[in-house]
Amino acid sequence: MSAAISDTVVIFTEDADWHTRRLKAAIEAEGFGVAVLSLNDCGFAIGETAHGLLLPGFGDQLPAAAFIRLIANGTTEQITARLGLLHALRELGVKVMNDARAVERCVDKSMTSFLIGKAGLPTPRTFVGEHRASMQALVDEAPGDMVLKPLFGAQGRGIKRVPPRAALPEPEKVGAVYYLQEFVAQKPGDAFEDWRVFVVGARVVAAMLRRSPRWITNIHQGAVGAPAPRNERAYDLAIRATAAVGADYAGVDLIEAADGSFTVLEVNSMPAWKGLQKTTDIDIAATMAGHLVRALEPVPAL
């Protein structure tokens, strides 16, 4: 039993917030209906529906496409099932943006760092391990500060700067996995700053500098965004980092070192863009909606 394709795009999220409203309006402007669903309310219905999935409001039809805005926290089993459903949509031929493979690669910072390094892109030396003693030895021998980050985390929460020979927290404080990255020194100044470059469809659509008196420069941690000057080196790295994780769109975090070189810190597969939108006249949601719709167009025959 084959499943028909509807003319409705589903946005998976947990909150009909500013981002969801902007994205919904942009997709509707492209001529599609929009359904806003939580992955928590979806599941599998093998042998029951034509496609084997449970998608409230779709019945035996499949969505025209799916946009992943947010995936809620949950148990390992819950997260596995939600990602499994996204994998299933891709297997059924539904365009998923970003699909589960890219989400998994970006949620796990160790895999993000590995793929960035594998692609030959500049990124800080990074160490990931479960044993406190061996990770402590790396800190004790480090030539400078290191940054301890949660393996799963966003918006600058839980990040700590660790000087050489400082004691690492107990394993239960870090989810039993230590993710350590070398601290990148910047040019002396009154503020710390990094770059957030927003890539859609292998093209940079906007970029901002995030400035803060503290070394953590996330907008959610009090940093202020400002328009970034056009910089082809930064843009090229962001585009290549997005491709390295297999994402259609991404928010790429770069830092400019004291010698003027750029380093890729992270790639975010479900980035917020409200702060970035304040620094540009480009409608970021419309750009993403346009890319999604173009991906649904048939490829012309040669």
Which features does this protein show?
ligase, five-stranded antiparallel sheet, alpha+beta, 3 domains, Rossmann fold, 302 residues, four-stranded parallel sheet, Dna Ligase, domain 1, D-amino Acid Aminotransferase, Chain A, domain 1, 15 strands
Secondary structure elements and pairings:
Elements: E1 8-12, H1 18-29, E2 33-37, E3 43-44, E4 53-54, E5 65-68, H2 76-91, E6 95-97, H3 100-107, H4 109-118, E7 126-129, H5 132-141, E8 146-149, E9 160-162, E10 178-182, E11 192-200, E12 204-212, E13 224-227, H6 232-245, E14 249-256, E15 262-268, H7 274-277, H8 284-296
Parallel strand pairs: 1-2, 1-5, 5-6
Antiparallel strand pairs: 3-4, 7-10, 8-9, 8-10, 11-12, 11-14, 12-13, 14-15
Helix pairs in contact: 1-8, 3-4
Structure overview:
- GO terms for molecular function: ATP binding; ligase activity, forming carbon-nitrogen bonds; metal ion binding.
- Keywords: ATP-binding, Ligase, Metal-binding, Nucleotide-binding.
- Residues 113-293 form the ATP-grasp domain.
- This protein is 29% helix and 25% strand.
- It is α+β, with helices and mostly antiparallel strands.
- It folds into 3 domains: 8-97, 3-Layer(aba) Sandwich (Rossmann fold); 126-182, Dna Ligase, domain 1 (2-Layer Sandwich); 186-282, ATP-grasp fold, B domain (D-amino Acid Aminotransferase, Chain A, domain 1).
- The strands form 4 sheets. Strands 13-12-11-14-15 form a 5-stranded antiparallel β-sheet. A 4-stranded parallel β-sheet has the order 2-1-5-6, with helices on both faces.
- Helix 3 crosses helix 4.
- It is globular.
- The two termini are 32 Å apart.
- The mean pLDDT is 91.
